[in-house]
Amino acid sequence: MIRHNPSGDLPQIHPSAFVDPTAILCGKIVVAENVFIGPYAVIRADEVNEQGQMDPIVIGAHSNIQDGVVIHSKAGAAVTIGERTSIAHRSIIHGPCQIGSGVFIGFNSVLFNCAVADEVVVRHNSVVDGCDLPHGFYVPSTAHIDRHTDLSLFPAKTATLSEFSESVVQANNQLVSGYKAIQNEF
């Protein structure tokens, strides 16, 4: 479902993107080319700041927002997701939040009030809250990272993890074209 927010903003979705009919996109959202938005995802840009303004939620080209993902933002703050980034099933991205390009966010992870640089891998069931993750950083499954966490204690990202991240992007890019071809059958 594509709908306006109370401020009257309507999502801008590139014609090559695929949005599952069960997903809900509400408000000031920009979806770039060849993006996949899976079943039951909810992307909602509807809160305003004290001045009555809001920044958009932006999803970069060739990224994928998988089943059950929730993306929202507090008080109109920006949420930006780079290109070729995967947000896996049932994750929550709550702004303010900036996620770079080539990033993988694993199942059930929660990101809030953070900046994630390019090529980062956050594995499943992890929390990143109130901190910045540098380029190429690796967050193992079930980790909780906040502004007090010593990032030097975490292991380096491996080539295998980078290859996995890219394979997820490629698989979801193929889904875009496949679902676009049959979308009138729904």
TrEMBL record:
It comes from the Bacteria. Pfam families: Hexapep. Coiled coil: none annotated. This is Carbonate dehydratase. It comes from Hydrogenovibrio thermophilus. The lineage of its organism: Bacteria, Pseudomonadati, Pseudomonadota, Gammaproteobacteria, Thiotrichales.
